[in-house]
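Why run this: before we spend reagent on co-expression, it is cheaper to look at a predicted model of the complex and decide which construct boundaries make sense. The entries below are exactly what would go into the expression plan.
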Amino acid sequence: LRVALDAMGGDRAPKEIVKGAIEAVREGICEVVLVGRRAEIEPLLKDAPKGVAVQDAPDVIGMEESPLRALKSKPASSIAEAVRLVRDGKAEAVISAGNTGAFVGASIFLLRLLPGVKRPGVAVPFPSDNKAGICIVVDAGTNLACKPVHLLQYGLMGALYYQAAFGVQKPRVGLLNIGAESTKGTEVLRIAYSMLREAKQVNFVGNVEGHDLFRGTCEVAVCDGLVGNAILKVAEGMGEGMLRWLNRALERYLKNGGDEKVKQFVFEELNRLGNYASYGGAPLLGVGGVVVICHGRSGADAIKNACLVAKRLHEGGVNHRIIDGLAKMGFGWWRPSRWMEFFWRGREDERTQKGEDSGDRRLRS
Amino acid sequence: LRVALDAMGGDRAPKEIVKGAIEAVREGICEVVLVGRRAEIEPLLKDAPKGVAVQDAPDVIGMEESPLRALKSKPASSIAEAVRLVRDGKAEAVISAGNTGAFVGASIFLLRLLPGVKRPGVAVPFPSDNKAGICIVVDAGTNLACKPVHLLQYGLMGALYYQAAFGVQKPRVGLLNIGAESTKGTEVLRIAYSMLREAKQVNFVGNVEGHDLFRGTCEVAVCDGLVGNAILKVAEGMGEGMLRWLNRALERYLKNGGDEKVKQFVFEELNRLGNYASYGGAPLLGVGGVVVICHGRSGADAIKNACLVAKRLHEGGVNHRIIDGLAKMGFGWWRPSRWMEFFWRGREDERTQKGEDSGDRRLRS
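The model came back. Tokens follow.
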């Protein structure tokens, strides 16, 4: 697996990004192509192992720039160049902690959507008390005006990703709503509810509410990008807040002659569960390549773990599965009728396994 | 102040509700009329102080019932009877921890909206690092399809509530969005942004994101009910999750010969900040009376604190201020043109202070 990594993206670029890349290569997760200003990257590569390459990209898109304008005015930005490596088959996955809008835009424009996909969706991990310890929420900010069919597709794509990445056979999919009953919510949510209920490919458990994410009621929660983005940042803010208040409490405890050792126990556990870095990154599901979005504040650890996410996506063949699953639902230009499916299923699987082009020119993972 | 309290609402009714009522009366916060099945309430009132009365209501609406159907089929439910006490002037405020939909419905049908209000909104408190330690979010679940003008009104109503309840002169109002720039979000959010920016009555600080609620960037955050409900429950779930993980960590620490005393320090601080009971309840802003919604799991403490919230709303004259503020913005059937306002302002204020009917038959607080 070769990963194209935007070395200039994020608040702590390029130092932490390069450090994370070197760690990922050392641990044998993948090879990395660092994309960005060669002059800034190479000094950081003194003791780099084999498997770390550099691809020059003169432009850098800032975190606050307007995505579309930046992509147009800076055609050779590190983000666009990194995505281009995947388009041209020189890398299998792309990771960036930079301007999320620009990264999503470049991915959609250059890699296109998988056949059958109506809208791509970002799948962000939340800490949860289910088996794998993770609940993913799709979408977290790319699709603000969701139609019911988008939510249906997010349910399928999220479940296929979860299956491949965390080895759970039938991930439970919930629709994030304001209450458990099927009549709750807006019209879009009610229609999405009935579509998800009818979909045989999705193990739908009905409406879920915000607290269910953490309680392990489901493995995948589906919502529109506005809600997903809001809850992502609220969970982050609440987690930070709790840690701040906990720190305050522990300081008072220590002042009153407390035992220093407690800190180590407490923060070890909470950091593992509440820290985004341990999850690495959020895949953009539905585009024709493996795309992993990192948090703007990502350090070396987060980057390394994002490489792990990319590896899981690649080796799990998530994009193949998405095309297949959507086709079975009747999406995409390749729509098998029942008997067609019956006759062709065997051959199609054979060809896919041999690594041949299964009739889809846009698939690159 | 006399409060009508739905004694049958919530998971821990009627015992905890009655206990909370007795505490509130003992502490001199208010008088309470307990509404519900007399036979179940009176045995709990053995050592009740003066100021606790009982009003019989034979029906009870369950937490899971469909709100509108329940209100129709059970006209004499404890929720409806409690709201009726306010409509008929026998109480100044109403509190319930029962079926939220039914409570909101009964409040709107029986108390009507304040003149000028397009949609009522629930204002829920979040823990925050600003001066008062609280950031309120409007709306948290009554209005799922917000128009820009609703968000504008929520901004004003939220600010007036905050001002009266927490004594902050110019509460900062933010629009909850997916990013800070004015061009972010859906069309509704972009229009709401420009409306809020133009409104002189609102101290608008622009778009805010989820984590800003906890960092103290604003005192009031405005969003539609779908987003508000989701973030409320996610914050709750994240808080619960963090406490669970913290408990786990502390147990491991104690097993390794730790110091028992730390628990007391830690949970004291976190409970004060992260526990909904300490905030009491969420007012329903925009209806013609003081209405406070409690969490379904409310215990005695939460109920007592909800009485405090009702007291603040009543004594702060929040509903008067809302009518006034909206009228200045040009909402409501009472729309003073500039010169009308100039001539009539004095007289209007005089009459209101004397407690006379200021031309508004629907105002009851």
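Residues 335-341, 344-365 of chain A have pLDDT under 50 and may be disordered. The first strand of chain A starts at residue 2 and ends at 6. Bring this page to Monday's planning discussion.
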